[in-house]
Amino acid sequence: DEAEWAEFEAGEPGEEGGDAAPQPVLAVVGRPNVGKSTLVNRLLGRREAVVQDTPGVTRDRVTYDALWNGRRFTVVDTGGWEPDAKGLQASVAAQAELAMKTADAVLLVVDARVGATSTEEAVAKVLRRSKAPVLVAANKVDDRRTANEVHTLWSLGLGEPMPVSGLHGTGSGDLLDAVLEAFPATPRELLASGGGPRRVALVGKPNVGKSSMLNQLTGDQRAVVDEVAGTTVDPVDSLVELDDEVWRFVDTAGLRKRTKTASGTEYYASLRTKGAIDAAEVAVVLVDAAQPLSDQDLRIINQVVEAGRALVVAYNKWDLVDDDRRRMLEKEIDRDLIQVRWAERVNVSASTGRSVAKLAPRLRTALESWDRRVPTGQLNSFLSDLVAAYPPPARGGRQPKVMFATQARTRPPTFVLFTTGFLEAGYRRFLERKLRETFDFTGTPVRLSVRVRE
Ligand code: GDP
Ligand code: GDP
């Protein structure tokens, strides 16, 4: 058994082998019937795995590959098992002991409707000594009454219990975020803090042409690009050379492999999309030029904006668009994309390769805007001129004053305005538009927040 775990510890080799860092391992422990496998299925976004309704049914220990926010990791579901001669408590404690020795993080699942039993107390005693971080999932929080009980699990001494419902899926995103945070940093994340190729997500609804586009972009150059100087390449990503620059297309493993094994459910597909966007700096959203823009397209575009990533909208299958439609389309696009009229756009065909070369300059423009910092002096002289010419509308007889502003962050550009009163949404949008025009934020969301000082 120890040997089996040691294998998990080493991590599975990446699909392309190479020197990719081993995937971190999350071990899931808990009493039988607390909902471990239901929760694991939920975390993986798939439902095929069998859930046994009989308490204590013996299952093999199972490992799964999981992907969240662009990070691959292995989940070991210790499953149901029969308590051995030493009894339930001893068995669960032994399971926990093994988990904390071998995994990068341990998830203790507790049935929140039952609370902490003597078994959980015994396990917690073991886990409190763990060097690997331990998270507590309070499962079966399906309703408010149970939610109110969750705090009692603080008594386990393992930190904040996280409410989840394996059944409904609520809380699983937060739990996954916490799991990733608990893992030790990898080279990939060190890369994320600067340096290395810029990270691009290629997203869009099913059948819009993502894998065709990836093929078009990589062509037969992958062999060359994989050699790129000394960086660890996460096997889920593709390095692509475009316009004399190497780009990292994130989470492309599922696009490259046409097996589409795990992408069966829409739920899984949307997790993938979110993961890719979060892992990227700029997203290329493919939409189908031959069809009207759909709610699903808009949802994905919106996800990019909410995540604060730079945005390029690529109208794909342009080869299918006839002349009549072409004339209509520009207007249609302007109308459909009014919320993101600042986005970079390009009309392409993944099949023919048309205009695919235009992608790189669009990506660059969007990223430059995303990175742009406006010096405070320049920002404030722009702002005082603007506000003098167009004062904010008065409310309740009081004229709000904009005192000063700073750009608090880049990636995306985020501005904070200090005012003496509330600024209406319309006026804030006006300021944003002027900021965009003046300092050129083509291709990036811009955030503006207002601090009222009375
Ligand atoms: P395991 O033995 O610890 O892996 O637990 P299972 O995943 O097999 O779940 C045991 C039972 O709890 C099954 O009947 C599940 O349907 C049920 N269950 C799992 N998660 C939840 C949940 O969030 N809410 C409720 N009400 N039941 C759940
Ligand atoms: P994905 O599900 O987003 O990865 O989409 P695929 O790349 O699998 O493409 C779905 C279908 O659209 C396939 O039949 C492709 O051949 C087709 N397709 C993709 N891009 C284009 C394009 O630019 N023009 C045309 N005519 N067909 C395309």
UniProtKB/TrEMBL annotation:
Q: Where is the EngA-type G domain?
A: 24-187, 198-371
Which biological processes are named by the entry's GO terms? ribosome biogenesis
Q: Which SUPFAM superfamilies match?
A: P-loop containing nucleoside triphosphate hydrolases (SSF52540)
Carries keyword GTP-binding? yes
UniProt entry keywords in alphabetical sequence: GTP-binding, Nucleotide-binding, Repeat, Ribosome biogenesis
CDD domains membership: EngA1, EngA2
Question: Pfam families from the entry?
Answer: KH_dom-like, MMR_HSR1
Provide the residue positions that the database annotates as binding GTP 2: 204-211, 251-255, 316-319
Return the Acidic residues bias intervals. 1-18
A molecular function annotated in GO for this UniProt entry is: GTP binding
Where is GTP 1 bound in this sequence?
Answer: 30-37, 77-81, 139-142
Protein purpose:
GTPase that plays an essential role in the late steps of ribosome biogenesis.
The family line of this record is: Belongs to the TRAFAC class TrmE-Era-EngA-EngB-Septin-like GTPase superfamily. EngA (Der) GTPase family.
Q: How does it assemble?
A: Associates with the 50S ribosomal subunit.
What is the name of the protein in this document?
Answer: GTPase Der
